[in-house]
Structures are given as C-alpha cells and as structure tokens.
Amino acid sequence: MTMLIFRQLFDQQSSTYTYLLADPGARAAVLIDPVFEQARRDRALIEELGLKLLWTIETHVHADHVTGAWLHRQRLGSRIAIGAASGTEGADRLLAHGDRVEFGRRALEARATPGHTSGCMTYVLDDRSMAFSGDAVLIRGCGRTDFQEGNPHTLYRSVREQVFSLPEGCLLYPAHDYCGLTSSSVGEERMYNPRLGGQILEEDFVGYMTNLGLAHPKQMEVAVPANLRCGRITDAAAAADADWAPLTFTFAGIWEVQPNWLEEHLREVQIVDVRQPDEFNGALGHVPGARLVPLGSLAARAQELSKERPVVTVCRSGARSAQATVLLRKAGFDKVANLAGGMLRWRAQRFAVEGGSD
Ligand SMILES: N[C@@H](CCC(=O)N[C@@H](CS)C(=O)NCC(=O)O)C(=O)O
Ligand SMILES: [Fe+2]
User: For residue 333, how far is its CA from the centre of ligand 2 (angstroms)?
Assistant: First the structure.
C-alpha cells in the first residue's frame, strides 16, 4: 500500500494548483490552497476517494482567486488553517513557524516564508520528500513583491533559509504555474532559478523584483477582501447547488441522480433515452414514459424539450447519457441529470420497465 495519496489539481482561470494529500490507512486528508470555483470538483474527488477532509491549508492570502476554504468547512466540516501573520479572520488555526498539521500518520511542517506576503507559509511533508511553497518559490520564478506586504529582501532570505536549505531531492510544488510546468525540486531551483538561484545576491534579486512591471491580478479587488475572511460568503450563494433532486456531482463533472429517486418521481421529469432505436425497443426495454432521442440527434432536437421541467438522461450504462447532460447544459438546460448506472442498474434494482424481455 502506498504511504500517501497525492493529487495535484489545477484551476485554469487563475493558474492555481490545489493539492490533496491523505493518509491511505486513516483516510484522513488535507487540501492545500483550494479554489472557490473548484470546490464542487474537489469535494467530488474527496468523496469518491472515500476521504475525510480534516483541514484546508492556505499558503497565503491569495490576490488572484478566492479560497474554497469556507465552502469546504460548510460542506465537509473541514477546519481552516493559515499562517498567523496573514491577518485573516475566521480561521480555526493560525499557524506559527514550526507548527505541524497532522492527517492520520502523516503531517506537514509549517515554515514561515514571508516576502510575497507577510503570512506566506511553505508546508514541508514529514519525510521532506515534498514541499508546497505557495508563491514564495515558483518553478524558475517566484511570487511578486509589489503588492500586499511584498518585500524582496524578506523573500530572498525566506527562500534561501527555509526552502533552499531542504534536501536537494525534495520536490517543490508551487501555488501557480503560468506555463504548464507542474513541479520542480530544491536542487533544480537552487541551480537554475533565474531570480533566486546560483550565485545571485540579495541586491541582484531586489533589482530584478523592482523592475518586473506586471499588471495587478484581474481578480485582486475581489480576492483579497474575500480571502481575509477565509472565503466566507452569504448563505444564499452557498445554497446555489441544484435543488430539484438529491443530485451528486461526480469528479468527471456530471450531475447524477439515483434510480430509486427517479422511480418515485417519474411523472415530474422528462426522461430522455439517448440510445439507438433498436436498443430502446430491445431486450433491456426502457424506463416507463421515456422519450427516445438518440445522442447523435440530441443537439438538433433539444428544442422539443421543456427547459422548465427537469430532464433525466438515460442510456445502457450511463456513459452516453452523461455526454447528453453536457450537450443539454450547453443548449441552456439548467435542470439536467444523468441516471446513474443507466438501464443496467435500473434493471438490476428491479424497477419497472416498458418493453424488453426478462
Ligand atoms: N495575470 C494574472 C497575474 C497573477 C499574479 O500576479 N500572480 C502573482 C501571485 S498572487 C505572482 O506573484 N505572479 C508571479 C509572476 O507572474 O511572475 C492574474 O490576473 O491573475
Ligand atoms: Fe499570491
């Protein structure tokens, strides 16, 4: 058995990496730098892997996206940890340099690495095989020092003393990458980081950083105040998930409904079977009241359906009908879900069938 469950997740909008780490024995997990808009995706993964989220951990107060920490606390009961010098309100734990965040038999050590912001922390895995450097060290780069409490002198010392002092084989996972790179190592950055590596002196670094000339992040006006509250939002916005059925959202990005719910609500929804006609009329039969619209003609025939009544899509196994929900959402349908497991599960659970044979 592996000693660590590890997933690197990406938010395209802000080029942010979120990291899921868990102890496979205890099923205990932590999530580093969750993104608000990806909270549903992250929750689906945590649930599908059968994990209990203990902590969301922030590397710092982000300027370019809102954290998903508060949403996860609401939905999963996780607690929020962030550096004590971050100036945030609402966290469950304010981390000091040297603190440990435990998850099962594994733990992360918090190291203060200020300079991009005052509260920046780097989290080092217990065996020093990985470190999560936030915006202190990026791959062949580093976080900027021209807003929030940025200070290039402080950042230079933080990186040299707290990150570059780790074992050279320690893998580095940053909070962002804008070119698609996913990880580096301490040895590699010590050698090749163009701002902080090699023979570069503190004054060289300060000169580099004061002349970057970058525009401020697009979401900064919204993100910083929201992150100072750990991503807390009004209850109305948090409840915006689909409410017409007890839907589940899969990691693949599909809303699903279970057969037992559909059986009790057959007359309240439009059931769209997207198989071929010979399958619809074949041995498996179809759900009573289902309308046949093969997947290939669904986009063209979507206007036959009402946007007011929920739509449940069905096929043999649930694969083609998952794609059908994507097509329908693109066509402007909000209340759409896939029948989990398709006709195979529907029949296995002995629900009523029209047509078909035993
Ligand atoms: N274009 C990006 C800019 C993001 C940005 O400035 N990111 C900060 C981290 S919060 C940074 O330090 N970037 C380093 C760099 O771009 O070199 C946006 O609008 O979000
Ligand atoms: Fe940042």
Answer: 36
